[in-house]
Amino acid sequence: MVYLGMLKYLEIGWNSLKMALTEFKHNKLRTFLSLFGITVGIFCIIGVLATVDSLQRNIQNDIKSLGSKTIYIDKWDYSGQIPWWKVINRPVPKYDEVKLLKQRAGLAQNVAFNISSTVKVEWDDEAVTGVNFYGITEDFSGIQSLEIQEGRYLQASDFDNAGNVAVIGYNIAEKLFTRPEKSVGQQVTILGKKLTIVGLLKKKGKTMMGGWDYDESILTDFEFMRSVVNEKTSQPVIMLQGKDNVPMKELKDEVQGAMRSIRKLHPSQPDNFALNDIEAFGEFMAGIFSGINLGGWFIAGLSLLVGMFGVANIMFVTVRERTNQIGLKKAIGAKKSSILTEFLLESAFLCIMGGAIGLLLVYALTKIISPSMGFPITISLNILALAISICIIVGILAGIIPAIKAARMDAVVAIRSK
């Protein structure tokens, strides 16, 4: 019995699909205009969701590249909530504070110090300007994900002896040596000092958030870099990463207490440093994306409402045109539920057709604008499933009244109608 019931509903579904296709074939203009609202609605919501989802995924990956469970201790507040004139006179982070933090922040797994500058790199007769020059400490690689393509990364002995060695970003190596792999073992000149390249960083590609941009960088030991630049004016920052399973709130509270103790601040004195939580920044960005999605839903909702009325109009016309057929079906034993299901499925198929056109337009648009956006725009399976669900729901809502009208028809009256 269950098998026969399934066959019955499959037959109804197949007949409904054929009816929907017949309607579109015989009344192309009328059907297309009626489905246009569905097409526009699906185009709007899927276009917005796909773009925002891809953008959010790209930005969240960029944020994660700054370091998971990581706090940036700086004089500047990265959120922009504190006016610059209130922090301009704060002291900058110092290298000595790193050693004290390692002693007093028991929840920290890695504590690194970093200074940075923009320099010119020279080799032979070649020179590249605007290169990001980073002076880092040993824990830096524990916080940042650095992949070496050729050679090696900085070793403990390089940090202990302040060796004149560095690792180079892929783009800089390509500009200087044409073939990036040739960079390992070469000596470059930065600010009048010679540095031996011991490693080539794997190409990472552009990021929307900027971040470290390792492709355009050279990394060396902090002690060496401080010998050629002014540490205080080279954007010093302390990077602190918490241990696994340590809540960020507990970590921030401990680091705040440790920094206040290190800087000998009285209880009545405000913090003269900022604890910039990377995960909190990610949550802030997620809130912005939610607002954009809400706007997309509002625009799409209006279009879908118009489309729903258009499909309802088609179904009312269809019921009127097939009144004789409905009467004949009822006369030979068709139940109300079968008639109801048939028209609801046909209405849903019509909406799916309109939605499919909208999805195709979104797909074409993603291929056109992805190169100019700087990140790939993709339609995920979740968004595709959402689009199909919306079409089915709108189709059922649009067809429910015409379907009920058809199901309640009297067989004799329906057969006699003209």
**How many separate helices?**
13
- Work out the strand percent: 15-25%
Euclidean distance between termini CA atoms: 38 Å
Largest sheet properties: 6 strands, mixed, barrel
Whole-number total of structural domains? 2
For the biggest β-sheet, the strand order reads 2-3-8-5-7-6
Output mean pLDDT: 82
Outline the structure in words:
- The structure is a single chain.
- The chain is elongated and about 100 Å long.
- The longest helix is centred in the C-terminal third of the chain and has 44 residues, at 278-321.
- 56% of the residues lie in helices and 16% in strands.
- Helix 1 crosses helix 2 and helix 2 runs antiparallel to helix 12.
- The chain is α+β, with helices and mostly antiparallel strands and 418 residues long.
- A hairpin with a 2-residue loop joins strand 6 (187-190) and strand 7 (193-201).
- The two termini are 38 Å apart.
- It folds into two domains: 2-62 and 283-416, no CATH class; 91-272, no CATH class.
- The chain contains 13 helices and ten strands.
